[in-house]
Amino acid sequence: MPATPAAWALLLLALTTAVLTGLLVAVATALLARRDGASRPGALLRAGGAFGVTLTVATALLALIVG
């Protein structure tokens, strides 16, 4: 089954939503870590981990839905 432009647009929209959700989670994690007393590098490490996990879960869910 050939992919239509609408399907590609929907996939791009879903990936953009996943990245933006990951960024939102990362910022929230960094702010909470700083509020908890973590140093800036420590807060960035926690934010990076949260971003990675969120993006991994969102990509896995997209793969389940598409595939």
As a percent range, the share of helical residues equals over 70%
Structural class: mainly alpha
- The proportion of residues in beta strands is under 5%
Q: What are the secondary-structure elements, in order, as H or E? A: HH
DSSP strand tally = 0
Mean pLDDT: 93
- Number of H- or I-type helical stretches: 2
Number of individual domains: 1
Oligomer: single chain
Radius of gyration: 15 Å
Reported for the largest beta sheet, the result is: none
Shape: elongated
The N- to C-terminal Cα distance equals 13 Å
Q: Flag low-confidence runs.
A: none
Describe this structure in words.
With 67 residues, the chain is mostly helical. The protein has one domain. 87% of the residues lie in helices and 0% in strands. The protein is built from 2 helices and no strands. α1 packs antiparallel against α2. It is elongated and about 50 Å long. The model has no long low-confidence stretch (mean pLDDT 93).
